Amino acid sequence: MESTVVEPGALLVTLDMVGIFVFAISGGLVAVRKGLDIFGVLVLAWTTGLGGGFLRDVLIGAVPPAALADWRYLMVPVAAGLVTFYFHPALGRMERLVNVFDAAGLGLFCVTGALKALDFGLGPVPAALMGMLTGIGGGVARDLLAGRVPVVLRSEIYATPALVGAAVAVAGESSGLSTFAYAIPAVVLCTGWRLLALRKGWEAPRPAGSAST
Amino acid sequence: MESTVVEPGALLVTLDMVGIFVFAISGGLVAVRKGLDIFGVLVLAWTTGLGGGFLRDVLIGAVPPAALADWRYLMVPVAAGLVTFYFHPALGRMERLVNVFDAAGLGLFCVTGALKALDFGLGPVPAALMGMLTGIGGGVARDLLAGRVPVVLRSEIYATPALVGAAVAVAGESSGLSTFAYAIPAVVLCTGWRLLALRKGWEAPRPAGSAST
Amino acid sequence: MESTVVEPGALLVTLDMVGIFVFAISGGLVAVRKGLDIFGVLVLAWTTGLGGGFLRDVLIGAVPPAALADWRYLMVPVAAGLVTFYFHPALGRMERLVNVFDAAGLGLFCVTGALKALDFGLGPVPAALMGMLTGIGGGVARDLLAGRVPVVLRSEIYATPALVGAAVAVAGESSGLSTFAYAIPAVVLCTGWRLLALRKGWEAPRPAGSAST
Prior knowledge:
The structure is a homotrimer of 213-residue chains.
Chain A: H1 10-33, H2 38-60, H3 66-69, H4 71-91, H5 94-119, H6 124-145, H7 159-173, H8 179-200
Membrane topology (chains A, B, C): Multi-pass membrane protein
InterPro entries (chains A, B, C): Gly_transporter
Organism (chains A, B, C): Nocardioides jiangsuensis
């Protein structure tokens, strides 16, 4: 029997795989921009793709993480890393692409993370928070390893769309609708919001006054 | 029924809340000094306030961490972040304030962390170590995310007061005294020691000779 | 009854202790090079020596980590830190030594990590991955805390020898041979490969073309 990270729907497994893939590509692109070699690209792709899910699984007590025992989960970020390594010149403008893949991963993971947490018996509020952490975790690990300020701390809308996307998924789960009917819109809401914030240059308010040192 | 991070005494819950609040303020102040926006302030406040406890809970197997499921624990760092965001100019000299709040959090967490570890069946030595890790964890997460050298590595007395405060709490627990009688002195000992070391500029010995490169 | 991190063989406990010791020395040497004081040296030694094992134990659900409850495991990195603190000038060329101790720790941990994971019921592939993570974890923690790019991301052969060493250990475990007959060769293979890659300056391929920014 093959284990799966998100039960029960095949839809959720697919969304999770796609999330791992796009996050892993964002990690691989950061590695390429840093001038790392193929192993650095693979390590960053693997960490970015699986880091958020590992963090979630450790916090909800789902250890060992299912991804450790499932060939598919292990190979997806490797494939993403190899694709990035060989085809990155065709990918063109890097920074923008990193952000697009990162936004897609954020949307996918905040939803699958929240639904898996519900599945493990967490209440609605903790489940939504676990969804946000799942979405944020991989990017934080990527940025810490690469020596960048984590994207979640930079001046952009990031944690909020993840929390809202996760909350929509949690609300949908209790609505009795089919998973299709709320998971896809929740992913689109989070990813779309994040991309719109990037494109429009939306900025959150900064502290008034200067920070006296 | 509402879950609580530290059983059984209401005193310990209060100390834990105060620890989360002051650590979260130290995180928010670092974010303000870095010029981050309101979300960055909230994320750093949340991570600093809850990071040490999450680390402890994962290591002792208390997952999902009770703080994830308790509104009070979740809102305390948000409140601290908002306070920091709006009132930081009144807080004046930042670096010194970060250190004072950080020392208070260190003292509170090393005690509540050690007592919770005892509560989960750990022996005295591991419980004291878990107390130290709980005290250190939030500040390390804050500094890593903010791109600073973690305070525990800088040339000051930091880990030792946390370990001693935790050891006093562990010894007190086995003494049969009421929690009041040993928890408060243990907090004061750790925090006072840390503040005194800061004020007096106490420095620990450095390696003799130069580090040949 | 004293708990041990690696059951059942005394050989594995010994290998684990030696791994902790040499990784802790590599952490202490990084601290000395950074000009940290004695507490910084001890903290980095402790984190580097025990970080990989803690990561493994949290992921396989072996919490609280046995190392937390075993005096021997706790004192070994402290002893390594003190040795580094007092005798580092005699240790001579730092960077090269860090790398040698790091390679030895990598080899020891990838094997003991994989065998402990098997012991906890993981399958061969996840166990080999856990071995790799155990080997990599301490060095990543050391480098993140010290503000260096993690060695696993730099342009050298690092993760691959750890994965192969762990895989050899996993294969050996199922061969029915005595632990001696496969654990030692697996350690030597990983450490030797890593040291040879360092000495020969082997480099992995880098992405073709420039990373357009």
